[in-house]
Each structure stands twice: as structure tokens, then as C-alpha cells.
Amino acid sequence: MKTDKYIKNYIGGALIPPDSGEYIDNISPPTGEVYSHIPDSDESDIQKAVEAAERAFPDWSTCGVEKRYRILTRIADIIEQNLDDFAHAESLDSGKPITMSKSVDIPRAHANIRFFATAIMHFASESHHMEKNAVNFTLRQPIGVVGCISPWNLPLYLFTWKIAPALASGNCVIAKPSEVTPMTAFLFAQACEEAGLPPGVLNIVHGLGPKAGEAIIKHPKIKAISFTGGTNTGREIARIAAPMFKKLSLELGGKNPNIIFADCDFDKMIFDTLRSSFSNNGQICLCGSRIFVERPIYEKFKEEFVKRTQFLKVGEPFSPVTDLGAMVSQSHMEKVMSYIELAKVEGGEILCGGKPVEMEGRFEKGFYLRPTIIEGLDPYCRTNQEEIFGPVVTIMPFDTEEEVLEYANSVDYGLSCTLWTKDVSRANRMAEQIQAGVVWVNCWLLRDLRTPFGGVKNSGVGREGGLEALRFFTEAKNVCIKY
Predict the structure, then answer these.
(1) Domain with 173 in it: what CATH number?
(2) Is 80 annotated in the active site?
């Protein structure tokens, strides 16, 4: 797999420049410098991709699950065989530590593809017998041409999470990766070429959301949209797509609570809480940014959590000892810093972090921020209600289950929650009442690809993962045969 200074779109089985000939600078977060250029695609490129997808759909949708399985598993094999190339591109593009790219992002990407390539082989139809009268059975048929739009925080991980079930179920895809982190999508196109994916089955169009992304959402021939990203963008997508009666899957923002009871396994809890707070610089929608600790262990927790956070190594992503790499962009780092300043205004005390890291040499212009812990804020202040999406957490004590449930459910979001307790009855009581699509008990980010994934409230609409994804990318048709 080879990176290129000028990234190309992948349309109709070929890597081609944008129709306009215009490009956007792609800045590497570790260095803060332009290192490549991405197509500034528009409606013309999307139209070309849709036409290619329409040509490919009749054969791809009827070629059989075995053929789709073989091609998809070949793509997964190519990604796995080129782990180092993909991981280096991911870290250069996003700023995340190379250790994370190698152990999380790229392995999960080829696992996504293998999972759905296999799942489609076992995706069964239902039948319903009307005694002495008729038999009903359900056909699950691909929708046609669908759109997949993925975010910048887990670029290939989430790109494949959407594309794989769409392709496995027989659809043809128009996919747009984030313009902030486009390189592994470009390498993915090369893997598809090498694997022999038929032309037009997958089309990858790079560019900005208001141009290329909006053209996907508005196109009348694109019948479904799967999107992961910010809540405001999701709201705009729904505004445009709903009157067109498109199917929508929207995985949006989060402001997730981490609830720690005094009877927890303290050592395991503190280890995973460090992970859930600062993995990928807190740039994961599932990170626990509001930490509620039962009062009897609050001071012990605070002392240990601050100490361990101060030991985290912030540095250039390609060092094996780096814990936190660069933030994804200068504008995003400035946004996160603005929330740290807001927290001070709201009465918060910065226990550690809160400042940029001064780097040297080729990394001195990069976007590095120390992980930040804030104490003393009201649970209902803006810092505790709005998504920050960075290495910033707040810690607060609580006394009762009822109190912490009210705090946890007070936000507009409902993506995930983590509970730490040895009391099984309490865990079940709390899980039942937490307003979230995912509840982890005594763990964090432990994912089974068979389970449904998504949020409630402003965290999204619909579910991804497992059979839920295959159902989303197919239409159910009931066939009734009277006898």
C-alpha cells in the first residue's frame, strides 16, 4: 500500500482526480504541516459515483453471498498483511499513537470486514405459517445505492464498520471519509482494487461535508444514509433526508457518565478509568468524560487518578512510549482549550493538565495537549453538559444511587455509561434506569460485534452492529403464499 501526495477518488473501480481539479491541504497533526492534498469533490463527482454504483448494482446484488464473502475476506487479508503501512498512515493523519493504530484501529478494521462477510452467510429469513391457509416468508433484499459518511476520530475503524455490512448485504456504496483523516480510506481503495472488488461496487469520494457530503445526502438515487459524527451535523442530515424518505442511521455525540461505587475493584477500576478518560486523546464518542465517585472513596480516587494521569506520556505518535499523541487539528485543540477556560469561569479547579505541550524539532508545530482533570463543577454547568471531545474529564462526588442517576441522565446525550460495582443487584437496577444505548459494568469498550450499538436522545437514531446493520442495509418484503 502506498500513500500519495495527491489523494485520488475511487470511482468506478479507478483512482481518479476530482472533476474540478481542486484540492484541499491535508495537515498532519504531529507536525502541524501540510503533507498531502485531498480532492475537493462536489456534486459532479458524486453523480459520477452514483452512476458507477447503479451500473454495478444488478450484478453485485445477485452474485450470491459466497462471492461477496470471498471478495470481502480478501480485502480483510490485504489490510492485515499491510498492517504497518495502514497504521503509519493512520497515525500520521490523525495524530494518535502508532501503538494504538497497530493494536486497535487497523485490527478492528479488518475484523469488521471479516465479521460481516461471515455474518451475511448466516443471515436467515423468517417464515410464518397460517394453519390450513397460507405461508408467509420474509425476503431481505439490498436497498440499492447507499451513502456512508464516517468521522475523523477512528478513521478506518468506523469507515469499514459502515461499508462492510452495506457491501455484504448486496448494496453498492458511495462513501465519504472525513476530510481531516483521508489517507487510510485512500489505502483502502487500493486494497479493494487488489482484491478484485468489481468496479462501481464501492466508490470513495473525498471532500468537504458541505459539498461532497451534502451532495450524497441530497442525491435522490441514494436511498439510505449511515452517518457517524457531530449531533448538529446529524440534525442537518435528518432535516434534508427525512422529507426524501431515506433510511437513516445516525450515530452522534456523547457526554458519557462513569459511575464508581465504593465497593468496586479499585485497581481494575482505576486502570480502565484512565483508559476511558484519555484513550485517543479523549476523541472517542464512548469516552467517560463525567466521572462520579461515591463519597467514601472520592479522596482516594482523586489522589490516585491525578497521580496516574500526570505519569501519562504526551509525545510524538511514532514513539513506542507515547500514551497520548497529537490532537487531530489546531481548530479542535482550540475548541477543547476554550472549554478548559470555561470550566475555570464556572468555578472549576484544574487538578492537572489543561495546557499545551511544548514539543521540539519537527514536532514543534504539532497539536499536543496535556490530559486534564477538573474538580468542583456543578453537574449542570455547561462544561458538564456539552460534548468536549478531548482529553478533559470532570470528577464529582455523590452519596446515593438516586442522586447519581439524576446527574447521569441530566444531559441531552445518551450514548454510553460505565458502572463500577460488585453489587449485581445494584448493577442491574442502575443499568435499567440509565438513559444510554450501551451500559458497561466493570469494564469499558468491551465490544462484541454481534451486539447492537447506538444511542438515545441526542446521541442518535438507529442501531449499528451485528444483524441490526444487515437489517438496516436491506428492505424487508413479506411474501404470502396461499394454499
Answers:
(1) 3.40.605.10
(2) no
The residue from 90, 179, 214, 251 that is catalytic is 251
Q: Is residue 454 part of a domain?
A: no
Task: List, as one string, the DSSP characters of 414-425.
Answer: ESEEEEE-S-HH
> Distance between CA atoms of 179 and 166, rounded to whole angstroms?
22
The sign one gets for the Cα dihedral 178, 174, 212, 286 is negative
Q: pLDDT tens across 85-132, in order?
A: 999 999 999 999 999 999 999 999 999 999 999 999 999 889 999 999
Q: How far is 453 from 27, CA to CA, in rounded Å?
A: 32
Q: Are residues 306 and 180 in the same domain?
A: no
Residue 390 — pLDDT band, cuts 50, 70, 90?
very high
The contacts of residue 164 (CB under 8 Å, 6+ apart) are 72, 112, 113, 115, 116, 117
Beta bridge partners of 330: none
Going across the sheet that includes 474-482, the strands are 127-130, 134-142, 474-482
- 54 included as an active-site residue: no
Q: Please identify which of the residues 285, 316, 387, 464 carries the catalytic annotation.
A: 285
Average pLDDT over residues 400-414: 98
Residue 373's alpha-carbon distances to 95, 239, 306, 388, in angstroms, are 21, 37, 7, 13
DSSP 8-state secondary structure symbol assigned to residue 124: P
pLDDT digits (tens, 9 = 90+) for 140-182: 999 999 999 999 999 999 999 999 999 999 999 999 999 999 9
Residue 2 lies in a domain: no
Residue 476's contacts (CB-CB under 8 Å, 6 or more residues apart) are 138, 139, 140
- Whether 468 and 437 share a structural domain: no
